[in-house]
Amino acid sequence: TRAFAFLKTVRNLCEEIVFADGTAFTAGACCVSLGDFIPAGPADPREAFIPLVVTEGEESFAFSSAAKGVYPEPTALFLASAKPSVLYLDGPDSNPAERGVRRPATAPLIRRMRRLVSESGSRRILYDHHPLRDPEWRRKAEPLFQAALEQAAVLQTAAEYRGEEILDLESRRKSLYDLEHGGSAGELDFSGGTNA
């Protein structure tokens, strides 16, 4: 739905709109390759992502935000075959605040991501976005940390990569509300916007 709003906004601002899924664009020594459009799971069929790889010289960055840990075989192959220096992975969204939303089982997603970490050969893996909404994300991601360690790679959050503190505001939403308002959040709905 965000894409439709964006297209409506920019339609009259440009001569042409090019749908980029499955294509590559080059500017000088920089190449941006985009994978195919991938639904991000059964929770909301309107949510999707397009993985991309940015390459310049010997360095490359593979990015797949909003994947929610869903990496179908073609997507995993696209990302791993790029052999990126840095691999950005979005893990499973296990946010319990979103009532009534069916989530895929976490264990198979972590297994597939572990394989992706191993096959990519990346020196650095950034694990961020949806998994950080869960206070237990680090424990649940242990197989990914192990896979990174086995190939002498570093797995960390985007904040850690930038040398910053992890502000896990999303996973602490209820306790922060209690702290701010001096009481219990009780049954308040905290499934709105995110800052993960």
Task: Characterize the largest beta sheet: strand count, sense, and whether it forms a barrel.
Answer: 7 strands, mixed
The secondary structure category is alpha/beta
Count of individual beta strands: 9
Residues in helix, %? 25-40%
Shape: globular
Rg value: 18 Å
User: What do the pLDDT scores average to?
Assistant: 84
Quaternary class = single chain
Order of helices and strands: HEEEEEEHEHEHHEHH
The parts where pLDDT drops under 50 for at least 5 residues are 192-196
Strand sequence of the main sheet, in spatial order? 1-2-5-6-7-8-9
Q: What is the distance, rounded to the nearest whole angstrom, between the alpha carbons of the first and last residues?
A: 20 Å
Instruction: Report the total helices.
Output: 7
Bin the strand percentage. Answer: 15-25%
